[in-house]
Design goal:
The complex is a heterodimer of chains A (about 400) and B (about 150). Chain A is an alpha/beta fold and about 400 residues long. Chain A is built from 13 helices and eleven strands. Classes of the chains: A alpha/beta (about 400), B mainly beta (about 150).
Chain lengths: ~400, ~150
């Protein structure tokens, strides 16, 4: 057993995803059941095998659809018998749930952990201005209170502060930024489960409306109703199951900067550089060994930031790296966000990226399958002070 | 309202614009959101090593002193980053406005969220010098910033 790097003793053994839509007929809990049952079956397990649950950020802000399902609801719906469970938002981004599960497995609390994330933002936005940053008639407390009086209506506005700094420091051009959205829509056109599948051109991107400079509409992810689940298993229990284990080769979970959206040390790179550095310190693999990158894309700039922070290109070199889009295409040297990502297949909030990475490693990508039997996926999540990343390796 | 101090204004938020959301006042942030009543931008400062501590807490991360108290700063600073909003999130929102992070002149790592006002949004630039103004909303004196000459 690898005591120094316990993530190497854990593997993803199954994945599941509900229908993803711009307005579901099923409830959020029903979508979660669909994703979880599919993941359990995919791993070749039954409900009786699941002895842990992890989710991020747990049940909260039900009215905005941000996280309407937590541990308790799914545990009861599936009548699971658990040794351990945890849901909470104070973690290294959305992958905090995976990191918690690694800890639970390493300490013997669980063997097969159900990790899930559910969003119901498409439906929530039909009935209300579903924004989690400003609440009408209610005084704000906590870290976001500092933004309260300044019409900070959405994450797009608040995070544009990071992205504009990056544009200023790097000199990246809009037609370079556009390649992220264009590439992902091309990939989504080959993904039957994606919500937006009609390819877009550079002209479409340049004609799209500005939300908050430098962000355009196509730089923003798409609110959906949907749920994703993955089964994380102890390695000895993973071997001999239905799928070849996908080992968690290394994780980055650190917080070395000030954990603050406003006081974060490095505005233009966000918290990612030290997190990626931690991940690389826990493996012998190098950036050149990565076959596919499934990078966070809440906004396209997150993906651009991660390309640099993972070391796939030089600092402020992402604009040149993605210029023209060839390198990041499915047939390129580093295919990026192969299923369309959150920009085109829907905001599954990083768990879509894990699902897609495993889909590719198991050779199930269909028309969008990356050639050459990919074995290593780098994946990442979150922006601002939050960041987490993982390297996934098919055994 | 008649301004008692030169940097108090009542014309920053246009008539018909959405009501500004407001922070819940507690003992930590009270000095920050009330200083405008006497025209002062107040930031916590270590009384031993003189380091500014923001957000406010009576603990200095440099010297571990607990003697950290709010002090008036000059009200001058620079735009560390900004965005020009184009999206009409709610009815009545100004067609364009600037959300910014402003670093205070006294110490670069104290960053304040604000709007840059009294100028065309397109004229705002990185590192632009700005100075504070206050507008009262309910019981809170909200700090805003406007362009200042680089004195």
């Amino acid at each position: 057993m690898n005591v120094a790097f316990p993530e190497k003793n854990t593997a993803i053994t199954g994945i599941g995803q509900s229908e993803v839509s711009r307005g579901a007929t099923k409830t959020a809990l029903e979508l979660t059941v669909d994703a979880c049952m599919e993941a359990i079956a995919d791993a070749g397990l039954t409900r009786a095998d699941i002895d842990g649950i992890a989710t991020w950020p747990g049940e909260r802000e039900i009215e905005t659809g941000f996280s309407p399902v937590g541990c308790a609801a799914i545990q009861d719906a599936l009548r699971l018998k658990l040794g351990w469970y945890a849901g909470g938002g104070e973690a290294p981004g959305q992958y905090g749930a995976v990191f918690n599960a690694i800890g639970a497995i390493a300490t013997g609390l669980s063997r097969h952990v159900l990790v899930f994330r559910t969003m119901y933002e498409a439906t929530a936005r039909k009935t209300a201005f579903a924004n989690s940053l400003l609440k009408a008639g209610q005084r704000q407390s906590g870290g976001f209170a500092w933004y309260a009086p300044y019409y900070n209506y959405a994450a797009a506005l608040q995070q544009a502060l990071f992205f504009n700094k990056y544009v200023h420091e790097s000199g990246i051009r809009p037609e370079q930024v556009a390649q992220i959205a264009i590439n992902q829509r091309r990939n989504a056109s080959l993904n039957p489960a994606a919500v937006y599948r009609t390819p877009i051109t550079l002209d479409d991107y340049m004609a799209s409306r500005i939300i908050a400079t430098p962000l355009r509409l196509y730089d923003c992810d798409v609110p959906i109703d949907g749920a994703t689940a993955v089964i994380l298993s102890r390695m000895d229990a993973a071997r001999g199951l239905r799928n070849p284990p996908i080992r968690i080769e290394a994780i980055g979970s650190s917080m070395q900067y000030r954990n603050s959206w406003t006081q974060l040390d490095a505005l233009d790179t966000q918290a990612q550089p030290m997190v990626a550095q931690m991940m690389w310190s826990r493996t012998d693999l190098k950036p050149k060994d990565v076959d596919i990158a499934e990078l966070y894309d809440g906004f396209s700039y997150h993906t651009i930031n991660w390309l640099e922070n993972f070391g796939f290109c030089e600092r402020y070199g992402a604009g040149d790296f993605i210029d023209g889009g060839r390198r990041i295409a499915l047939e390129g040297e580093l295919p990026v966000n192969t299923g369309g990502g959150a920009l085109s297949s829907g905001r599954l909030h990083a768990y879509g990226a894990v699902h897609e990475g495993c889909t590719q490693l198991w050779g199930r990508g269909g028309a969008r399958q990356v050639k050459g039997d990919p074995r290593v996926v780098a994946t990442s999540t979150a922006g601002g002070p939050l960041a987490g990343c993982m390297l996934l390796v098919k055994e | 309202m008649t301004a008692r101090y030169a940097n108090q204004r009542s014309d920053i938020t246009p008539a018909g614009a959405p009501a500004r959301a407001l922070p819940l006042i507690d003992k930590d942030n009270e000095a920050y959101w009330s200083g405008g009543a006497v025209g002062e931008l107040r930031i916590y400062r270590c009384q031993d090593c003189r380091y500014y501590v923001h957000p406010p807490v009576r603990f200095c991360p440099k010297c571990e002193s607990r003697k950290v108290e709010p002090e008036a700063v000059s009200g001058r600073g620079r735009v560390t980053s900004f965005t020009i909003n184009h999206q009409p999130w709610v009815p009545g929102l100004p067609e364009r406005f600037v959300l910014a992070l402003v670093s205070i002149a006294e110490q670069d790592d104290v960053r304040l969220v604000s709007n840059i006002v009294n100028c065309s949004p397109e004229s705002v630039t990185m590192s632009m010098p700005v100075r504070v103004l206050f507008e009262k909303h309910e019981d809170i004196w909200v700090p805003f910033f406007e362009p200042a000459s680089a004195a």
